[in-house]
Write a structure and sequence with these properties.
heterodimer; A: 452 residues; alpha/beta; Aspartate Aminotransferase, domain 1; Aspartate Aminotransferase, domain 2; 2 domains; 7-stranded mixed beta sheet; 3-stranded antiparallel beta sheet; 14 helices; 14 strands; 13% strand; B: 499 residues; 12 strands; disordered C terminus
């Protein structure tokens, strides 16, 4: 198999044009001992027919599509409208590069501008960038921005932020610079957070809803972060933001807002795809604009005065500013941001809110059902959005195994994250789940609990 | 007369909406009861537009883009090659697209096979011992690689002492930016006479404070470092690690293994060499390959084979630098890269670097008389011309780039690398036919003639694109970074020109 379009005769003509007799003469600068005599020991070539068979077989080994999913923990099985795939799959979007030549990239640039606009509206922030790799790296970049902005090092992580996000933060930072509060899982009280938020703290980071799906009261966190001269960083779910008060907006005379709002936007029209590619979003207050990581599209005009869009403030970026850049990010998640833009455009004002409300209704229906099953309980009492924790009478892992026999994946085994959580099942119920499916899920839990 | 394009927020209005959601089929309760005390938002100023209009909007936007499926895209350093369509199809198979990363190893053996195979094949192709597929892009891979190097020095008790990274002045901007991110300091060395590393400068810069030398091979001028073995030997002799920026792996694939050149770690841009589409700026993938001594530090998790032959994600890696991604890296991109590698096979991969090199040299020789060629040595997969000879006509490289757009081809990378004045960095890739190369060359030749005869034509270019040259200064001054939600339902303004 080859995608090369040159014949041997053409190759000869080209070599003659270059002025060499053999191709190998062009490789004279490469040390002889570094040139491989033989091609790499890899399989192939495979035709499309063989490739489809092989990877088709592998894909079916996942059994991903044959059970109804109640799995979440950061990535969710939301509805992806058919138009998202049809539009985002177009070559014009998929096979273009970063829009460096704006005159032939207005499609991509307009879509980025619309993405920024939608994310700014959703978060209540003044500005949003063109995307980050994922929720975890978006959160890390928010922390790095806060550290540059305040000149301080330490970071307070308040309440239950996704353990993977915290893990990535610890990789990027000196782990000693990350303070988790409280030690035990649950919502952080303002008193607990205030006790560790001193004059060396760059930012207070919290997740809303938190890793267990619980909704806290962020105003107090914003206030105490600001009292300490630190920034408030909110890690949010974009579907929840269609319903909840936007953390980046401060109402007149109201409480102060979060300075930076970031999160994972896979749920906006993107498949879970075994955890990637994902879509980080990054929004912030106007005053932080020049410290933002990543790309920004801005409106301007062309020479005929027509509205057009272009990348701007590139002097923040690595290809201009090099070691003084605000981030090293170059390639981002453009095509996923486009999918999210199409998704938000299709669902619009009404649809976004309906998805969020359906999630709330169905999640609470599931929670009501589980309360009637002997042996199971809901360990937390705070309001929850699309996800909740169930304490099982047996290991969550066994509940999941029983669920598979019933054609459901009942949730995520929290024992993966901490051994003491082994009986905790994290359950997500999106708008895609029907009443029947939720009842089948409850039945699976019942069977699993009774099988002890 | 064409109506000026409207943004989504300027279309539709109250009463318009997209596809419907199902009615709530569970007993509904008031939100105030379900979410007691939770402040809800009072408004969401999102568009209100029907599905047909959303579809038209994005279809119209799509027509405004140049893309590799439409025409030549010789953007240097970006490897804009053909993206086989089968790869996208395979990545979207339900078994892959719907696989949840926390479903457990037993339920995701197919995904783990993909990751384990990509780890193995990339290690073989690059000549390294092990690979992590977690980094989501090239720069993310650079950061990961530098963290591995930092962990190596720390493990040897030299973490505090070795904090400098030597980077040639021809390097990509991501290199010094990544160095800064891990708390290291960049030491820039000037290139030698042939725009390759000056061993003298390197030796002067190397000392017991050097953590690493970062090198792009071939370098950003498309030149292979003839002394690369000496560079890595000197660096190692000074106790430093050698990092290879793999952005230009397309020049080497199947012929030269960076591991054999003495490098300790490299990243691979799978969206370049292994043809996963660029998506208008991503997603890409930046797997990192390492020599044996750095393997213990690789990020968690790695896909490994258990004693029973079953695959699992290995978390028990006590020396690991930790996680660098929320889940498993850009898995869907890895499926595409795997499909590409398997499609080509061993000989096919060798053909890639051969034809990429042949195409670049052919174009370079053909254009050498028309534009200045500061470095006339044979190039690898790309080469750099200078437009400085056109300055006497009042024409700059930017004008050449903009005029090229009128010929239905994308402009090369311009003003990079920084060490060439008025640089035009051209990377044709192996998938362009001779016909296309000749067309591109003819366009470049015609533009050079126009620069002499009618320079204003270039300064006013482009002329046939959806919009004319943009006012970048105004964009940066006004900083309008989002739409005005009050513009809902705004009437279309008519454009000033007929097309």
């Amino acid at each position: 198999m080859s995608f090369v379009g040159l014949t041997r005769d053409e190759e000869r003509r080209m070599l003659a044009g270059i002025g060499v007799a053999r191709f190998e003469e062009l490789l004279a600068a490469i040390p002889k001992e570094a040139l491989c005599e033989r091609p790499p020991a890899i399989p192939g070539p495979l035709s499309e027919i063989e490739l489809r068979r092989l990877l088709g077989d592998w894909s079916r080994e996942n059994h991903a599509a044959d059970a109804v999913s109640f799995q979440g923990a950061g990535l969710y099985d939301h509805w992806i409208p058919a138009a998202v795939d049809a539009l985002a799959g177009r070559s014009e979007f998929a096979t273009a590069y970063t829009p460096y030549q704006a005159e032939v990239a207005q499609g991509t640039l307009t879509a980025i501008f619309e993405f920024q606009s939608l994310i700014a509206e959703l978060t209540g922030c003044d500005v949003a960038n063109a995307s980050m790799y994922d929720g975890a790296t978006a959160m890390v970049e928010a922390v790095l921005l806060a550290r540059r902005h305040t000149g301080r090092k330490r970071v307070v992580v308040a309440g239950l932020v996704h353990p993977h996000h915290v893990a990535v933060l610890r990789t990027y930072l000196d782990p000693a610079e990350v303070t988790l509060v409280p030690e035990a899982p649950g919502l952080a009280t303002p008193e607990e957070v205030r006790a560790v938020t001193g004059a060396d703290v760059a930012c207070v980071v919290y997740q809303q809803p938190d890793f267990f799906g619980l909704i806290g009261s962020p105003h107090a966190l914003h206030a105490l972060a600001h009292e300490a001269g630190a920034l408030a960083v909110a890690v949010c779910d974009p579907i929840a933001l269609a319903l909840l008060e936007p953390p980046g907006r401060s109402p007149a005379d109201g409480p102060r807002a979060a300075d930076i709002v970031v999160g994972e936007a896979q749920c906006l029209g993107n498949p879970v795809s075994f955890g990637g590619p994902l879509l980080g979003f990054f929004a912030a207050h106007q005053s932080l604009l020049r410290g933002l990581p990543g790309r920004l599209a801005a409106q301007t005009v062309d020479r005929q005065g027509r509205r057009a869009f272009t990348l701007t403030l590139q002097t923040r970026e690595q290809h201009i500013r090099r070691e003084k850049a605000t981030s090293n990010i170059c390639t981002n998640q453009g095509l996923l941001a486009l999918r999210a833009t199409i998704y938000m455009g299709l669902l619009g004002r009404e649809g976004m809110r309906e998805v969020a409300e359906l999630c709330v209704q169905k999640t609470h229906h599931a929670a009501r059902l589980v309360q009637g099953i002997p042996g199971y309980r809901l360990p937390f009492t705070a309001p929850f959005f699309r996800e909740f924790v169930v304490e099982c009478p047996i290991g969550a892992r066994e509940v999941i195994e029983t669920g598979l026999e019933h054609g459901v994946r009942p949730g995520v085994n929290l024992g993966r994250f901490r051994p003491e959580w082994k009986n905790l099942l994290l359950v997500a119920v999106t708008e895609q789940r029907s009443r029947d499916q939720i009842e089948r899920w409850a039945e699976a839990l019942k069977q699993a609990g009774g099988a002890r | 007369m064409s109506a000026e394009r409207r943004l989504l927020i300027e279309q539709g209005g109250p009463g318009h909406r997209g596809p419907a959601l199902p009615a709530c089929d569970v007993p509904a309760r008031p939100l105030a009861e379900l979410l007691p005390g939770v402040p809800l938002r009072d408004e969401l100023r999102f568009p209100q537009v029907t599905e047909p209009e959303v579809v038209r909007h994005f279809i119209e936007l799509s027509t405004l883009n140049h893309h590799v499926d439409r025409g030549v895209y010789p953007l240097g350093s970006c490897t804009m090659k053909h993206n086989p369509k089968i790869n996208d199809e395979l990545a979207s198979l339900p078994g892959f697209a719907q696989a949840h990363p926390l479903a457990g190893d037993g339920a995701t053996q197919g995904c783990l096979k993909v990751i384990a195979t990509v780890q193995r094949l990339l290690a073989e192709i690059t000549g390294f011992a092990a690979v992590t597929t977690q980094p989501a892009a090239g720069a993310h891979g650079e950061l990961t690689g530098l963290l591995l190097i930092r962990a190596h020095h720390r493990a040897r008790g030299e973490g505090e002492k070795r904090r400098r990274v030597i980077v040639p002045d021809s390097a990509h901007g991501t290199n010094p930016a990544s160095v800064n991110l891990v708390g290291y300091e960049t030491v820039v060395i000037r290139s030698g006479d042939h725009a390759t590393v000056s061993l003298e400068s390197l030796e002067k810069a190397l000392d017991d404070r050097t953590a690493a030398v970062m090198l792009t091979v071939p370098n950003t001028l498309g030149l292979f470092e003839p002394q690369v073995l000496e560079v890595t030997r000197l660096a190692h002799a000074a106790g430093a690690q050698c990092y290879m920026d793999g952005a230009n792996l397309n020049a080497l694939v199947g012929r030269v293994r960076p591991g054999d050149l003495g490098f300790d770690v490299m990243h691979i841009n799978v969206h370049k060499t292994f043809s996963t589409p660029h998506g208008g700026g991503g997603p890409g993938g930046g797997p990192v390959a390492v020599a044996r001594h750095l393997e213990p530090f690789l990020p968690v998790p790695l896909a490994v084979s258990g004693p029973d032959g079953r695959l699992r994600l290995d978390w028990d890696r006590p020396q690991s630098i930790g996680r660098v991604h929320s889940f498993n890296g850009n898995f869907g991109i890895l499926v595409r890269a795997l499909a590409y590698i398997l499609s080509l096979g061993p000989e096919g991969l060798r053909e890639v670097s051969k034809m990429a090199t042949l195409n670049a040299n052919y174009l370079m020789r053909r254009l050498a008389g028309t534009y200045e060629l500061p470095h006339p040595e044979p190039c690898m997969h790309e080469f750099v011309l200078s437009g400085r000879g056109l300055k006497k006509h009042g024409v700059r490289t930017l004008d050449v780039a903009k005029r090229l757009l009128d010929f239905g081809v994308h402009a090369p990378t311009v003003y990079f690398p920084l060490i060439v004045e008025e640089a035009l960095m051209i990377e044709p890739t192996e998938t362009e036919t001779l016909d296309r190369l000749d067309y591109f060359a003819a366009a470049m030749e015609r533009i050079a003639a126009e620069a002499r005869d009618n320079p204003q034509l270039l300064r006013d270019a482009p002329h046939t694109t959806p919009v004319g040259r943009l006012d970048e200064g105004r964009a940066a001054r006004e900083l309008r970074l989002k739409w005005d939600p009050a513009a809902r339902g705004a009437p279309a303004r008519e454009s000033a020109t007929c097309r």
